[in-house]
Amino acid sequence: MTHEFITDFLIGITILIPSFIILAFAQTKFTLWFGLILFSIASSVVINVINSFASKYGLQSEKGTILGIFRSLQALARAIGPLSASFGKT
Q1: Residues 6+ apart with CB under 8 A from 22
Q2: Domain-by-domain residue ranges, the chain?
Q3: pTM of the entire structure?
């Protein structure tokens, strides 16, 4: 993993953690929007770094398959995560 990957990943995670805290305690529209903006910036940085890191694996002829599976699993996680969280204790 190169230094740029690590730096970008740490910046994204550093922004992501406060965005979750802000969203959890948001009481006004402004606070909610501020948390959402931070979250979207951070997640876009982290997702791109993870995708770039995943593209480093496999042979050149396997790149499309590897990235296709990886992106499909990301989409599946985004669909199943909220669904599974909605069936917890209320």
Answers
A1: 31, 34, 35, 38
A2: 3-84
A3: 0.69
